[in-house]
Amino acid sequence: MKTVQAHGVTIPALGLGTWELRGEACAELVEAALGMGYRHIDTAQMYANEAEVGAGIRASGVARSDIFLTTKIWPDCHAADDFARAVDERLELLDCGPVDLLLLHWPSRTVPLSETIAALNKARRTGLCRHIGISNFTVAQIREAVALSDAPLICNQVEFHPLINQDKVHAACRKAGMVMTAYCPIARNRVADEPVMQEIAATHRVTSADITLAWHMAHGDVMAIPRSSKPARLASNLAASEIVLSADEFNRISALKARHVRVCEPESVAPVWDQP
Question: Is 47 a known active-site residue?
Answer without folding.
Answer: yes
